[in-house]
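Forum: Protein Structure Q&A
Topic: Joint prediction for protein chains with partners

I've read a bunch of threads here and the consensus seems to be that you should model interacting components together rather than docking separate models afterwards. I'd like to see that in practice. Below is the full input, 693 residues plus whatever partners are listed. Could one of the regulars post the assembled result?
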Amino acid sequence: MWISACKKDENSIHPINIVTIESDVTSFEVTQLDSLHVPLKLSESLATNGDSYTYQWKAYKVSGNSTVISTKKELDERISLPSGNYEMEFRVKNSKTGVETLALFQLIVNSAFSEGWLISHNKDGKANFSFLRVDDELFMHPAEDVNQMEFHGKAIGAFGKVDYKFALTYFFTDKEIYRFDAEQFLLNGTTKDIVSDVSQIDNQGVNFNLSHGGYDQILIFNNGIHMGISGSFPFETDIDKKLFSDRLTGDYFIYPEVISTYYNETYFYDNKYKKFLRVQSLGRDLYLPQYRVTDAFDMRDVGKTLKQVAYGSRDYFSNQAYFLMQDASGYYLYELLGNIPKSVQKLDNVADVDKIVSMAGSASVRHIYYATENSIYLYDFLAQSSRLLYTFPADVKVNSIKMWQAYSGNPYNNKRLVVAANSGNNGSIYYFDLEPTGLFKNNAISKQIDGFGNIAGISFKNKY
Amino acid sequence: MLTVLVFAFSCKKETVDTYSGPNILSFYLNSGESDSISYSFAMLAAPKLVDTIFLKMRMSGAPVDHARTISLKPGARTTAALGEDFEFPKVQLPAEKLTLIYPVVIHRTKKMDTDILIIDAEVESSGEYQTNLSGTEIGETRNLPNIVIKVTNLLVEPTYWPSVEYNFGTFSQVKFRFMIQSTGLNDFSDEALGYSGSYNIPVKLRNALAAYEKANGPLIDEFGNRVTF
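Posted by a regular:
Agreed with the consensus. Here's the joint model:
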């Protein structure tokens, strides 16, 4: 038989010091490599207790790993988490009692390398590519820093695209092709992972783009075309690790430009036989384009040498492209809209037409900018006339010009011309902001960004 | 009032019967494996005159403390010539072991250019073991007294060809041999190539064919047709 008795112990109840966490903001958004500061108010229920605490800020993705960001009371840290959506947990632990208080926040981390200019250059004999973000934040060696690597060879060009289920950047040197995730610049392959029949890259110009419909990745190098699968094709997996095709079969010498003007097929220009060629979405064969009697020119038989390409308007089905062509009779501007040859203009009385090194078009008005080694001109397509806008000092040589076309809503879209130029082995990027007339504001450079080596090329990496 | 219940019981040790019976050597297969093996020298990217086909074998019964000699003999369905088209080497099943991988050596002989020869591999009984055990055991493996090997130097149209005909065109032995030698692959099914491979391998073949034709002129198959991709 068990007998038990109990009596109340009046000394057994001790109040516990509880921490309260208060914050006016519970959701934060930060760009990688920027600092995040979370304003908080902490209060104790027994403030005079003199307790000490430990702190922990932890970020985790649902079903993913967690990362401790800080162990300080105040969060004021540079965030280097991969981009994405996170739950952020702040934990305060009483060192004496072990009692913990928890607060949860939402955190969105945007890629540090979300959209901007990829600048390929050679500095001190080494290949580089730099990333100039649209807010002018410059990352001089992002891929080398992220991957703790150096590039082999001389820089030729870098290209990056972000699309549906696709985000890759390719960097060409004359020794190697490098492939990176486009938003983190993490290396995921070199030449042998990308193409199987290449021993060297000729410095004759390279290009990369997606087809307009998004099913294809297309590389041009050594004047040959290599096709791969892109994100809009729903059945392939690990697109970022798959090989491209060998050089598409055929006797041709392709100008280094993937002409993605039409949703259903992609065009190329063969400078050997002076004609356009096409590949259908997911195709691996080169065909002649179609011809209609209403076409302004026969894409199957142009008979001229392609010198430069610029782009104009863009929409879901069709983009506009301009082609500077030359033959013995002079220079011409051919216009293609989607898959329709729209017009041909003979470029008589266009200043320095025989010295053009680069062209860029506006998507909002019929203006085409062109550069010679030293000067920038505006060609008015409707008036069929040109005018000189700017001349650089004699030692500055223009490498390429591009029209600013960032994510929808960017205030500089079609209102800023970006110029890459070299003075000896020193490269600079110049912004020229445009008046509605197409002229340069104040007839002057709006901004100059220095510090590059000899620039080999620039291209825009978009945000999807 | 508590009632205390007392349980009293006793236990004695049970004896478990162990296996006793003859030692029987047989081939064995995993679930889904065919009891017939097809081999073609023509499927190799790099030509060979001799190759080896490995057969899984096991002995029922307890392990023994000495090695046992294993031998096979040609079964009734054999059309290949022992000692000429193939060999059944004598091998040892090591002491304390019950499984082995048996090597059948095959030679590429002239008659294989036009025929499919059959090697009906049958266990040859000896004083140390018997043969002819078959059945299914737990784990879904099954024992067999015989395994048939079909060996040739012909290229037989793969069963998957109709589903890849869009990529590679009409089958011919000349075309298939060219594909194997150009790519180093011998399986061109959608499953083996994957999507990227299915799109890209035809380009590799077209380039290889263009190079071949530049040096040798058109490649003509056994039907008199020009090979194209």
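The interface with chain B takes residues 196-197, 227-229, 233, 235-236, 242-249, 282, 284 of chain A (CB under 8 Å).
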